């Protein structure tokens, strides 16, 4: 938590520095956007990462216990991955928007 | 020191100059060309396939594809009553796959689905289809009732649940379909570009060229990975469309 707070403070410092140096608000916004883009993607990747790991682990367990159901389990697994991964992908889109737009 | 890694701006990665008709409604660039090829190539393959009793060559490939879509997508998501949707789901599967696979084909090196327009059109097709199927099989009122008012919810909570169901069914489904395909392909494209740029930079800066083989091996490995991603995304897109169709076909309670 304190690490997050300190990075936020650094970010504000960075933004104010940019304002002082080049004296344009647009620059400060771009700098803050570019540095928070990485955080946006990193935070968005945590949950889905854990989720997909758990999901695939359980699917492997199911397939090992019942190899004859492997096809059904695999289809359901891909479906679950598709739903879980959507959150990380929205995070990636936010990253692109913060960094380039 | 060494020259810094010069990453090109995002516009250089996804925007392509027009071949002709710049600024007109018929502007034709690389994305349009790839989309056109993604329609033409499967059509030619399907026309080339002979209708022999014992399949061989192209017929094998085409029959295998149709069988894959029927077995893995339709039978596992909808069941036997969904086989009448094979043409639609097969078209979606092939268009998405051929739009994606141009990501790793030299001289193209661009997935058509990394521009938002293509996934959005495909998602709208899926959206219209599952709403149409729902209205056709349950009637307008029945479809709205089964998708907006889940049974067994306390009366007091019903407005909130209906609102959430409406957003998740009619807004988040097409949004999720489009964004999933778009972001996957764009991420893969940027990944390949990053390693390509890294290889070129390492080649130019001299001493650091010692680690060029590792970077190049990574590029080759990622190319193979992206072939797999193209296939999986085509599979997932058609599978999700099939799941949405099957959810609208029957009242789920």
Quickly list its features:
heterodimer; A: 101 residues; elongated; B: 253 residues; mainly alpha; 70% helix
Account of the protein in words:
The complex is a heterodimer of chains A (101) and B (253). With 101 residues, chain A is an all-alpha fold. In chain A, 92% of the residues lie in helices and 0% in strands. Chain A is built from three helices and no strands. Chain A has helices at 2-22, 25-65, 70-100. The longest helix of chain A has 41 residues, at 25-65. Chain A is elongated, with a radius of gyration of 20 Å. Chain B contains seven helices and no strands. Chain B is mainly α and 253 residues long. In chain B, 29% of the residues are buried. The A-B interface holds A 71-72, 75, 78-79, 81-83, 85-86, 89-90, 92-93, 96, 99-100 and B 9-10, 72, 76-77, 176, 179-180, 182-184, 186-187, 232, 235-236, 239-240, 243.
N-to-C CA distance of chain B: 67 Å
How would you sum up the major sheet of chain A? none
- The tally of helices of chain A reads 3
**pLDDT below 50 for ≥5 consecutive residues: which ranges of chain A?**
none
Q: Biggest sheet of chain B, in brief?
A: none
**Radius of gyration from the alpha-carbon trace of chain A, in angstroms:** 20 Å
Q: What percent of residues of chain B adopt helix (DSSP H or I)?
A: 55-70%
Short description:
The complex is a heterodimer of chains A (101) and B (253). Chain A is mostly helical and 101 residues long. Chain A has helices at residues 2-22, 25-65, 70-100.
Secondary structure layout plus pairing:
The complex is a heterodimer of chains A (101) and B (253).
Chain A: H1 2-22, H2 25-65, H3 70-100
Chain B: H1 10-14, H2 30-48, H3 58-77, H4 86-101, H5 117-148, H6 158-204, H7 212-249
Helix pairs in contact in B: 2-4, 3-4, 3-7, 4-7, 5-6, 5-7, 6-7
């Amino acid at each position: 938590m304190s690490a997050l707070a300190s990075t936020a403070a650094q970010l504000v410092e960075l933004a104010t520095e940019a304002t002082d140096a080049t004296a344009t608000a647009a620059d400060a916004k771009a700098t803050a956007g570019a540095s928070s883009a990485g955080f946006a993607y990193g935070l968005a990747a945590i949950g889905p990462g854990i989720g997909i790991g758990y999901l695939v682990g359980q699917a492997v367990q199911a397939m090992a216990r019942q190899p004859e159901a492997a096809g059904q389990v695999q289809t359901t697994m891909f479906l679950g991955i598709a739903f879980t991964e959507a959150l990380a992908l929205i995070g990636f889109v936010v990253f692109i928007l913060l960094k380039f737009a | 020191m060494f020259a810094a890694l010069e990453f090109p701006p995002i516009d250089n990665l996804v925007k392509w100059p027009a071949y002709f008709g710049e600024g007109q409604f018929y502007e034709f660039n690389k994305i349009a060309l790839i989309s056109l090829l993604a329609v033409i190539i499967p059509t030619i393959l399907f026309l080339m396939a002979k209708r022999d009793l014992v399949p061989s060559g192209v017929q094998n490939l085409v029959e295998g594809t149709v069988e894959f879509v029927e077995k893995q997508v339709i039978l596992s998501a909808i069941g036997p009553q969904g086989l009448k949707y094979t043409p639609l789901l097969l078209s979606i599967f092939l268009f998405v796959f051929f739009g994606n696979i141009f990501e790793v084909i030299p001289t193209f090196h661009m997935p058509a689905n990394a521009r938002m327009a293509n996934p959005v059109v495909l998602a709208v097709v899926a959206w219209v289809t599952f709403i149409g199927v729902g209205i056709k099989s349950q009637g307008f009122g029945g479809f709205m009732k089964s998708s907006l008012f889940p049974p067994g919810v306390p009366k007091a909570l019903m407005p909130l649940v209906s609102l959430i169901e409406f957003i998740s069914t009619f807004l988040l489904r097409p949004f999720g379909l489009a964004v999933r395909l778009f972001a996957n392909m764009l991420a893969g494209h940027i990944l390949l570009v990053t390693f390509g740029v890294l290889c070129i930079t390492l080649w130019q800066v001299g001493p650091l060229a010692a680690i060029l083989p590792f970077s190049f091996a990574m590029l080759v490995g990622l190319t193979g990975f992206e072939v797999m991603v193209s296939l999986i995304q085509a599979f997932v897109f058609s599978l999700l469309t099939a799941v949405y169709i099957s959810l609208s076909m029957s009242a789920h309670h």
